[in-house]
């Protein structure tokens, strides 16, 4: 395929080459406040074409909670096959204790994040405590300044407590606001010598689980997301082809009043060590590719 032909690629034309799609939520299907109509249309088209769809989100919530939120945005199970959240991955890991470090994990945890997310482990035999001195581990669902502060984090690191990160993202766009996520806490914890376990994108087990739910090999799947650092890097580690949409976290950096900033894109790809095979301004059937760096399979 000639470069000029590839530059006319759209999601509709590319979809013919894949049987399954791993699709991010925030910045791709919705902005945390409202859904994107073209994205819903795209999901409907893929489902009508009998494509398998796994929605994969770094939301630090249980999957059924996110499903309820999607339903309120008119995105029900007609539009996808499975839904995986990083919060659900944490819940499952702590319920089964199959992760190598978990059998020795105590039952008391210090929560860092919004109060509304403090109940992630409800139903399991764990108890939330108010300070690091009484905790066996740290559970991070959001950023600082809400239920704990940096001093608590330093004390937890000094006591060698493991930190479980329920959302590896550094930030997310909610409406027109950029909101810090638990990934910021995890990164800070590592700088003060703490040990971190991340659940969700870009970790390889997360993508392997998504592939298992679709019962497809990596070569038959396209991953779509708005973050080079999590969505695109994670897909690359799993040998899954990826597409970046610019309706989320990278929009202001890569889309200028003159259009797509290709030099900035190349620089960011180099910095983060990840590159998608397709760049779209948003998730929509008729969106023409802004960049196609590789031949399609």
TrEMBL record:
Keyword Hydrolase: yes
Keyword annotations: Hydrolase
InterPro entries found in the cross-reference section: HAD-like_sf, HAD-SF_hydro_IIA, HAD-SF_hydro_IIA_hyp3, HAD_sf
Top-rank taxon, per record: Bacteria
Cellular component per GO, a single term: cytoplasm
PANTHER family registered for this protein in UniProt: 4-NITROPHENYLPHOSPHATASE-RELATED, OS08G0542600 PROTEIN
Protein's UniProt name: Hydrolase IIA
Provenance organism: Rhizobium grahamii CCGE 502
């Amino acid at each position: 395929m000639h470069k000029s032909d590839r530059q006319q690629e759209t999601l509709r034309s590319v979809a013919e080459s894949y049987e399954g799609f791993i699709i991010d939520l925030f910045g791709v299907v919705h902005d945390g406040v409202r859904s994107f109509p073209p994205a819903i249309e795209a999901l409907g088209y893929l489902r009508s074409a009998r494509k398998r769809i796994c929605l994969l989100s770094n939301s630090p919530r249980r999957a059924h909670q996110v499903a309820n939120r999607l339903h309120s945005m008119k995105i029900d199970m007609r539009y996808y096959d499975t839904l995986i959240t990083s919060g659900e991955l944490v819940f499952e890991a702590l319920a089964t204790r199959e992760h190598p470090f978990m059998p020795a994990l105590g039952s008391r945890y210090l929560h860092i994040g919004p109060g509304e997310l403090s109940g992630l482990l409800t139903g399991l035999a764990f108890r939330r405590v108010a300070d690091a001195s009484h905790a066996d581990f740290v559970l991070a669902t959001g950023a600082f300044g809400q239920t704990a502060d940096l001093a608590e984090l330093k004390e937890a690191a000094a006591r060698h407590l493991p930190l479980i990160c329920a959302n590896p993202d550094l930030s997310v766009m909610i409406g027109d606001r950029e909101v810090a996520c638990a990934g910021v806490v995890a990164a800070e914890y590592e700088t003060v010598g703490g040990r971190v376990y991340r659940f969700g994108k870009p970790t390889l087990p997360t993508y392997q689980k998504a592939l298992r739910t679709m019962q497809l090999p990596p070569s038959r799947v396209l991953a779509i997301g708005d973050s080079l650092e999590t969505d695109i890097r994670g897909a690359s580690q799993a040998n899954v082809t990826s597409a970046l949409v610019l309706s989320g976290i990278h929009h202001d950096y890569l889309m200028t009043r003159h259009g797509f900033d290709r030099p900035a894109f190349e620089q960011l790809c180099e910095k983060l060590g990840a590159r998608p095979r397709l760049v779209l301004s948003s998730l929509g059937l008729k969106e023409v590719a802004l960049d196609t760096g590789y031949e399609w399979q």
